[in-house]
Amino acid sequence: MYWRTFIWAVALLLLGSREAACHVMSESVSVVLHQTNITRLTAKAIHAAGYHLHKIEHLSIMDAPKLDHIVVEDLTKMPNLKSLFITQAPRLHRVGPLPPLPELRTFIITTSGLLEVPNLSHVHDNKKDNNSLAYLQAIDLEGNHIKRLSPHALRVRADQVSLNYNLLEDVPAFAFKNAQISKLSFRGNTKLKYLDENAFASNLLLRQLDLSNTAITSLPTAGLQNLETLRIEKTPSLKYIPSIYEFQSLQKAYLTHHFHCCAFRFPERHNPTRHKLYETQVALMQAKCANAGPQRTPQFRKRRSLEPIKILPPQNNSNTTVDSLEDDVSTATTSEEYDANMMDEYFSDSGSWEDANEQGEFHDPVNNSRGIGFTMISARCGNFSISPRKVECTPAPDALNPCEDVMGWSWLRASVWFVIAAAVVGNVAVLLVLLTNHTEITVPRFLMCHLAFSDLCTGLYLFMLAVVDLRSYGEFFNYAFDWQYGVGCKIAGFLSVFSGQLSVITLTIVTLERWFAITYAIYLERRISLSAAAKIMMGGWLYSFLMAGLPLVGVSDYSSTSICLPVESKDVGDAVYQGAIFVVSALAWVTIVVCYVQIYRSLGGGESYGGRGAAAAAERRIANKMALLIGTDLLCWAPVAFFGITALAGVPLVDVSHGKVLLVFFYPLNACANPFLYAILTKQYRRDFITLVARTGHCNWLVEKYKLAATPPPTAHTNPSAPAHLMPLVDSAYQRSQSQYSQGKDSTEVTL
Length: 752
What we know:
By secondary structure, this protein is of the alpha/beta class.
């Protein structure tokens, strides 16, 4: 804060120089006590320093480590005091109620030890000229240790009040009752969580409010009818934004979440009840206008309100139109803006403090003749409107956070349930059969269980999105906070990334195992053993957990979109994380393509199928199955590629609205296809399934039908009259008796 002190010192020196040049016109004095050791601020101490009390207009105390008390009664001995500035006084914990100081315009105590707001309600009690409507230009209590607002302490007329970067925890009811404050700021009160429903009630002039970087969870609307600028930035705890109908004069809103701006853009979906009431009022006014006749001229009705603070004399407003009622509002004073523009705000170059007060150039007026408190109504027969306006809101909805439901389109909302059914039912069927079968555990069976589990997680992820979409249909932005920043979205995002990465790893290992089994069919020692497969999959699980868990600890974020995917890249860590996912998926797909090409070449064409036509048919069948496996993998990982490139490039190549189509139809493609391609459509799975059914004792007709279909037809070497020898349900002896090359062929047939 030393640079801030330096700015003040320079400003005071400039002011002093200007006042010295104008000594003939004014004999005002500016007192600056820098790095002083005084412990009590009294009139006697100032007089002892050589200053005439009646001439003091500006009193500044900077860097006073021992100051712990201000004798406020002595301030009345300085009747022309216009500004009191104290900074860096850590022992100054309390300031008594200020007595009447009719000329006081600026009261500033910053980076000190204040524990409560001084009572300033009587500062202008003895103002002789009641028509001038005296007010405080600025009350700045930034950077103290204020924990509470004393009752009626700020019952003042003030242009701006700053309580930034304190320790406030709540704002009680009617904290600003009967006050007339234009700009109020609570920025940086990180412990501020609770605002009473009537916290701002009875303050009829509040135009700018700053609650940025706080911990509030709700925003009351009482007393904010005339609010024009609202700042609630860097406040992720705010769940719900009130309806735009609660803010009759709001023009600009600087918020934290995109979906809050969606609420302002679609008020009919944000608050249907209030919007219906609004439409009813419009209909009544249209009917009234129709009854009044087509030539009725525009009318304006003015509601009674407290007399506004004015610097300039009131002007005639009889011919005011709706356009003339609109004005550009300067933004609320924040800590950063305040420090940078301190001299311009508090020491105007256009004249002295007194001149500025008289000419109205010191600050924007708290209120003027443009009419805060007006309800603007324009009515003509057949042409009716009530204050048509658009709120300038940021952050505006973008490609990652559009103003739409989770699924966006109706056909997509219906289609996702078919995808979920296929993914969940198929993978549950595979797990049920493989885990309940008591035959020897093989490497393919072991890997199929992992693949089915990972794909089942994808189905559960889509199920969670579909349920949220049904629950929030038509008004997702009312549920967006609880979903995107709640546990549900984190679980869904975790399942999505975990299942995607585990599926990638498992499919790659399955392909490599098949490649080893076929390429090196006669070398048993080169096969992947069950223990080796278990170790590899353990590493795959750890990797998947790591990639799915990083967004939970701040690397990227699941809350950046409604579909809970970590697609937003804010820093280098996010880019590295998303790049790693993209690279792993790309390498896995290339590995699978290379392995299947090698498998196809190792089969030696169709020579072993005997006959040219049979060979060609076999080649086509194998090629088609390989193309299907490779194509489903590519289509499944295409969304990952698109979103990965988007995140790395920082440009929405695929926005969320269109990305949802990829999410529903392509991303879960493996989850739907894998259980059929790798398990359900294979002969081994059918044998395992019939064995499970036979063990239950039900559906004997199905078992008999399978036995009949599995019985080889009679030949010339068999006795047709003798009972046929049925194939066992689980022919483990058959598997053990196969030759090494035949094992490879059978393995290929099961896979392909």
